[in-house]
Design goal:
Thrombin, subunit H, mainly beta, globular, four-stranded antiparallel β-sheet, single chain
C-alpha cells in the first residue's frame, strides 16, 4: 500500500522490531507494516476502516502496546487507538484540535502528545496516565511553528524540535516535567528546513534530521 505522506514509525521493543504506521495514498485509511529485522516486512495490515486521517499519524509503544494518535479525516479533532484493540477508538477532549501531524512520546510513565493548534501557530502539550483522561498545557507563547513538531525523551527531559513559524530556522525546547518549557534554544542559523524536522536520541547524543531549505 503506497503512501504519499511521510510515515510515522516507532520501534516496537516488545516485538524486537519496527512498526511503520502510514496513511494510504489512495484513501484516508491507516496501515501498519512490521519487521523483526528491518529487512523482511510483514503486512501491511489495515486498521479498522473507522480509523481515518488526511495527515501523518504518530505512533509510540506504551504499556506493551502500539498506540496510534491521529487527526480525524472529517475534522481537526484527535483520536487514539492501540494494538490491544484497534477497534477501541477514543477521542481526545474536543478542545484538543490540530492542523498538523502530532508527535507522541512516553515520558515519566505517561503518554505525551505535542501538537500545533488548529487555530494558530502555538504549540500545546497533552498528557495522560491511562489514554482516557488528558491534561492540557500550552507551551510559552514564544514557541510557535507552522509545521509539525517532533519529540524525544533524552537525559530525563522531554524535547520538542520544531521549525519556526516566522522563518526556516529550527528550534529546540525541553522540559523536565512535560509542563514547564523554560529551555528554548535555536540550532545554528545555517541549519534551516522547509519541512518538519525529526529527532531521536542515539549513543548518548540527540540527533535532529531535517530537509534543507535550499534544495
Amino acid at each position: 500500500m503506497d503512501s504519499n505522506i511521510s510515515p510515522a514509525f516507532t520501534s516496537v521493543q516488545s516485538a524486537n522490531g519496527l512498526s511503520i504506521v502510514f496513511p494510504s495514498s489512495t484513501d484516508e485509511t491507516i496501515w501498519i507494516a512490521a519487521s523483526a529485522n528491518g529487512s523482511t516486512w510483514e503486512g501491511p495490515t489495515q486498521l479498522p476502516t473507522t480509523v481515518t486521517t488526511t495527515i501523518t499519524p504518530t505512533a509510540v509503544v506504551w504499556n506493551n502496546a502500539l498506540y496510534v494518535v491521529y487527526q480525524s479525516s472529517t475534522d481537526e479533532t484527535m483520536w487514539i487507538t492501540n494494538s490491544a484493540n484497534w477497534s477501541g477508538l477514543s477521542q481526545l477532549p474536543p478542545a484538543i484540535t490540530t492542523s498538523a501531524s502530532p508527535s507522541a512520546s512516553v515520558f515519566q510513565g505517561e503518554l505525551y502528545v505535542v501538537f500545533k493548534s488548529s487555530t494558530d501557530d502555538t504549540l500545546w502539550v497533552t498528557s495522560s496516565p491511562d489514554a482516557q483522561s488528558w491534561g492540557l498545557n500550552q507551551m510559552p507563547p514564544a514557541i510557535t511553528t507552522s509545521t509539525s513538531p517532533a519529540t524525544a525523551v533524552w537525559n530525563d527531559n522531554l524535547y520538542a524540535v520544531f521549525r519556526s513559524s516566522t522563518d526556516e530556522t529550527i528550534w529546540v525546547a525541553s522540559s523536565p516535567d512535560g509542563k514547564n518549557w523554560g529551555n528554548l534554544s535555536q540550532l545554528p542559523p545555517a541549519i534551516t528546513t522547509s519541512a518538519p524536522p525529526a529527532v531521536t536520541p542515539w549513543s548518548g547524543k540527540l540527533y535532529v534530521v531535517f530537509r534543507s531549505s535550499s534544495d
